[in-house]
Design goal:
It is globular and about 45 Å long. The strands form two sheets. Strands 1-2-3-6-5-4 form a six-stranded antiparallel barrel. It has a six-stranded antiparallel beta barrel with strand order 7-8-9-12-11-10. By secondary structure, the protein is α+β, with helices and mostly antiparallel strands. The protein is about 20% helix and about 40% strand. α1 crosses α2. It has two domains: about 120 residues, Thrombin, subunit H, CATH 2.40.10.220; about 70 residues. A hairpin with a 4-residue loop joins β7 and β8. The protein contains three helices and twelve strands.
């Protein structure tokens, strides 16, 4: 019997679901992922994940953050993660991931998939979706106006939006739980600069 694509995807999801349930408290997994992190100073630096669990990350970087520094990290495979530096080394640092139980469970599912999909002979469709150059996003302006636009690019510090909606420079805007301001007007839309989370702002 030939399975339809949607049934095959459901079968893959069930397999990963079982693996995630069995490995919810798994130890760190060896995943080498590249990304960038935002330091408390407001500067971005590249880093490489050496190993990771839902509770922590061991990373390699030329820039070593301070002990107890709050970081915002992003990789194409895992998205945006917040954490606190708990150990510094000569060529990197260890970070405790700070998240809700729900987000930690989602991260555990994602890590389980990344650690096992090749061994199971499955295609990593979710990576392809996450790496898509453009996707629809829901935006809310400071006056409450809501509209759908297209995100062309995203980094730790901002997002490039394609839309026919008119916005003002420096106008406040939010995308889900993220907030920021319009930093630049382009021919096809505008750019958003994200607000630095309060936890990552330097002390006064």
């Amino acid at each position: 019997m030939t399975l339809k694509p949607e049934k095959l995807n459901k079968r893959k999801s069930r397999v990963v679901g079982r693996l995630a349930a069995e490995n919810r408290n798994f130890s760190r997994g060896k995943l080498k992922l590249s990304g960038r992190f935002l330091s408390e100073s407001g500067w971005e630096y590249p880093f490489v994940v050496i190993d990771i669990s839902p509770g922590g990350i061991l990373a390699q970087s030329d820039y070593i953050p301070k002990l107890n520094e709050q970081l915002v990290m992003i990789t194409a495979e895992l998205g945006r993660i917040q954490g606190k530096v708990v150990r510094c080394e000569n060529n990197g640092f260890a970070c405790a991931i700070q998240s809700t139980v729900r987000k930690r469970d989602q991260l555990a599912d994602r890590l389980t998939w990344l650690l096992n999909y090749k061994r199971l002979g499955l295609k990593d469709d979710r990576v392809a979706e996450r790496n898509a150059k453009s996707q629809e996003v829901y935006l809310t302006l400071g006056d409450g106006t809501r509209f759908i636009a297209v995100s062309l690019d995203m980094s730790i510090t901002g997002m490039l939006i394609q839309t026919k909606e008119t916005v003002r420079l420096a106008e406040k805007i939010s995308i889900g739980k993220l907030s920021g301001t319009v930093s630049r007007i382009t021919e096809t839309g505008f750019a958003i600069q994200f607000d630095i989370p309060i936890a990552t702002r330097p002390a006064a």
